[in-house]
Amino acid sequence: MSRPDEIAVQRKARVVLAVLGWMTVVVIIVQFFLAGVGLFGVAGMETHMLIGYWVPLPPLLMLVAAWPARVDRRTGWLIAGLFGLLIVQTSLPAFRDDLPVIAALHPPNALLSFWLSVVVARRLMELLRQPRVRVASPSAGRDRADVSA
Amino acid sequence: MPARIVRARRGYVWLAWLFAACVVLQVFLLGLEVFEAGADAALHRDFAYIYGWLLPVMLLLARVGRLAAGIVVLTATLLVLYATQTLMPAFAEHITLLGPLHAMNALALFGLGVLLARKAAGSISNEPT
To answer: Rg of chain A over CA atoms, in angstroms?
Structure first.
């Protein structure tokens, strides 16, 4: 792949990352709304549960897109952490019969997931605004080079 | 910067983080009720009336600490949101949307608490020594 092509791929991957990042934030907000719908008896919890199983999908796709986007290590770990937190989130209610205190961590974990999702989304926006895109330099003796996007 | 102002700002930061932590604890109390881990609705409700008093103190510290007008306004906003949060369940029987909004407002309370803690902390570290 030529360097201009590589830069274009990185740019597109970063756009995808930013979209997925904010999508995760919005989905978590929607989940809070749906939890309220269920808790206050407006409707059941079925929609909240159904969507809940899909919430880790955007961060999973972010992990895939992180490689062509060449995110920095810290951002990569934050995305992985968000994915892990959301997997835990979907698992916590399953403990309600045997360890209800563990299941009770489901709502506070949702708050922490929201916080981390906003941190990740903001970092991805900063990444998108960066004027330079790091590419792997083909020249000998240099691992990376900054080139203008 | 006078020591009194620095102390007021530090106090504000501590209280803002404490407020955010109390919101987390409160939703945990809700979780204990929902997942039948031995707590009842009264615990979730009554705890709110304990930590709500942090907000007027934060407003006072924001003024004493001469924090930026934006922070003062957001603190007042947080106070209004908190007051609204305590009222929503009572009216949710008559206005069904208030129930789900109560859940979403918890997000806003937590997020704003964290934001204010970080902004105020930044105002301390940004001041020239």
So the answer is: 19
